[in-house]
Here is the input.
Amino acid sequence: MKLCRLLIAAALLAAPVIACARTTTANPDFAVGSQYDSTHVYVAPADFDRFMASFIATFGGTTSKQGVFQVTPTASQTISQVAMTPVGLISVFGFKTPIPYPFGSERTGYLVTDLDAAVAAARKAGAMRLVDIFPDPIGRDVVLQWPGGVTMQLYWHSVKPSYALLATIPENRIYLTADAADLFLTHWRAFAHGTMVSDDTAAPGSEIGRPGTRYRRIRLRSGFGDMAVIVTDGALPWPYGREVTGYTVRDVSATLVMATKAGVEMLVPPHREAGRVSTIVRFPGGYIAEIHSNGR
Here is the structure.
């Protein structure tokens, strides 16, 4: 319950909070830490190095050694590398062969303490397996899908990793319709022991490119990191809904200067929304991300 107490203390600064699900022997929390949660990015091999360079130039950090591996349970080959930045981790894949189904649909990879037990708990909480547990070069993985079509990978390493804490926690941005939102929230929170930081049922539509309308914006926090669930009727103007992750930086304007020098394209100019300044950008290779700060 230590994590839950810390989450509640932080969230009280922003909004009323619904209590965390109780962590017990029968209801364990399998999260390891947000520094081990990676957004999965797929780019063409020709764009791989340029994308990696632009991401590090924008956010700082380091990369793992690049290699070519089989990371799926069926025959395939991909260039693979990890970028470790102060604002979040990304796992990047540049497939040299056709991408086996359903890979490429998973948004994120979450490190868990016990993969078999985590999968059992996720299934009990309402997830289904798209790909059952399989080995990879450094551990084991599974691909799960939650109500609403939210697809993710859980993973476990044979050798326990040790990454530095992040400066800021990335925000997993999930767009759903009202048909699925509450169902997803119920099932995900049961598994992740998530705290609801805020639930604005009338957020201004200008935040998602639809001025003059309203939408529902829910923000969650758990050991798996931050999450924004954006509930709309599904009629979204470009590029909203294409950004999988939001990155928190100290100064959006300064970050955009570095990003532009690295070949990153600004898709949505910086604007104020819900106590933050937000922008959406596209990196070389096509990866679209939101960037925000709580100040400038």
